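Input/output pair, single chain:
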Amino acid sequence: MISIIQFDFCARKEKPIEEAELESALAAGFFCWVDMNCSVCADRDRMCTRCATCLERLGVNELARREVLGPDREGRYDVHDDCLHFAVTEAGLAEGRLQTAHVDIVLGAHYMVTFRRHEATLVNQVKRTYREDFYKFAQSPGFLLYEIADHLTETYRRAITGFAESVERIQLKLFGEVDDTIFREVSTLTQDILGLRKVVTASRELLHELASRRSPFVSETTQPFLENMAGTLERLSADLTTEREVLNETLNLYMGMVSHRTNKVVNRLTIISAIFLPLTFICGVYGVNLQGVPEFEWEQGYLFFWTVCILIAVALVTYMRRRKWL
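Output:
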């Protein structure tokens, strides 16, 4: 599906137009936002052919067209004579796992193209909110870049909040009954945090490029706002690093708790062994099959044996209690 919105910044007007009106709108000097959504199309090949034709009608060069329709690549930034091509990756959580969606953006002098193979809430959010900013603040097409960067940052912030809640849930879980599945949970969560950090870092570098490099397609009034967004992503990246460190500390805490429990069990077993070791020795002495052992003929020998065993056991327990081994 291809949707087109025409902007007139001088008259402060915007309206959706049909694909057939695109060339006449560009010829009249209007700015057009062309959104190409392949996620809702059953025939992807046919839709890609239609998108390629639309890009050609916009005047996008062949190399840029191949880059847009080619494989997704995070954080790409390609400079052409007639346009800029870059890609952003939104992030979100679905059933506790990280989900990403790529959006390719082509920015020319009189058009902006957003191309997506999968459903991206980022573009849908921009479509719902751009009108208010357009009528109040927009002075150039750069406001669309700001809208995209703002909503992109918001998706990262929500994902980080979700990860923080997951880390807290794992920490609370440690104080209950846990098993070895916690290692799988921690490993999965760490993998997703690293994946999100990679996406945030790529987007931060992209915004920094857009904000710092002079280009006829990005107005100078927009660049300071994009640089602020890059700073926000820097802080979000630091937050992700913190969450990862907290998760590692959580795993270390669990390992420490397991070691402590193991040490307590080993301590009890050692105490039991220490008590029964002398008793076992006595049993071994009186269990030999030799003639002439005096206690064998003694009427009080059995009582003497149990008295010695009990005294040894009581003495060992008393000694261990005084040394606070028990």
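The helical segments are 22-27, 44-58, 62-69, 121-136, 142-173, 181-212, 223-286, 301-322. The first strand starts at residue 2 and ends at 8.
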